[in-house]
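Something for you to look into today, if you have time. What I am after is a single protein written out in full by you. I want to see for myself how the chain folds. Could you add the entry underneath, on a fresh line?
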Amino acid sequence: MTRTLFLAALVAAVQANSQSPQFIPAPGSPVVVGKGPGQVSLADINKDGRPDLVIRHLLERLLTVWLGDGTGRFAAAPGGQISLSYMPGDVELGDVNGDKILDLGVTNSDRDAVDIFLGDGKGGFNRAAGAPFTVSAAVEFNTHSLNLVDLNEDGKLDIVTANHRRNSFATLFGDGRGGFSSGPVTTFQPGHNNYTFAFGDIDGDGHLDVAVVSGENGDSLEPGRVAMFRGDGKGAFKNAAEQSLSVPMGPHFVTLADMNNDQRLDIIISHRSNQLSVLLNGGAGKFAPATASPYDLGTEAFAVAVADVNRDKRNDIVAATVDSVTVLLGGGDGFIPAPGSPFRAGPGAYNLAIGDVNKDGKLDVVASSFEGDAVTALLGR
């Protein structure tokens, strides 16, 4: 960052922090939910128009459902506890059987398989017939990622799983009734490890594509890489070799979103070096860093979400930063800290979710506390 840009960012940060904070704790926050709350998801589970919480308790081998009351408070759902025989990996919500009720998918940390639990519309879930569904024969301990997306454009959700240390991802095609069958496997050039993925229509052709980010663990100074794979709308992906990008070392998490309102998906990457990169999509496979990117968050971001939290019609960045939530507001010249950022959260704030939990038209944040027993709810202002 040049000295001029640095001074401008510093002045903006001072001005921002002299204003009212962007978020304040919700009534009753933190919410005690049980030991080791990790991944958190916000969605209307019981169809009452209020966002609810689904929480992964990794070491307890447990998923719990907490119903929102529309004020920012949450209470345990009757029958909303799912005990597992394995440590759950990634958790995703989606309507896999077409009944307009959210269902739940969870990966197995011991093997490449996905459990599907069908929602009852009241906050409870029951295992689908045929579940768990085996994705591949691989047997190894790792937190497999999970995406529920429509790969083959038939209007039915499909499954994508990946082991962050294996240079491939596997698919299962959904039948729209809660069942799944084997789909293609996409393999990419090995080299780095710690692979992470994000799905979206990157090239604007109407088909889902995927950005694959990889980088060495540990203290390696080698840059990370971003590879693009173009989807054909049938579930297969082809490497767009000309779109391979170099990024700062230690990429950890990636997401896709339009950060500058040009109708193109951009790439947002957190790094183990406390940095966060924003790569703007210029079209024709060209990407360039946003002004002053990468940004120094001061601590490592373990999860990143994108949303317009200050209602200025520009997307902002919300990051789970160990024991806090860090918010960067988007503007015409890059990103600046939100007033009051970072916001205090519980120990082990490695995951977060965004939604309007108190129904006031403003986006709120719920953050995990893996080393505690509660989640932090922050209300947007």
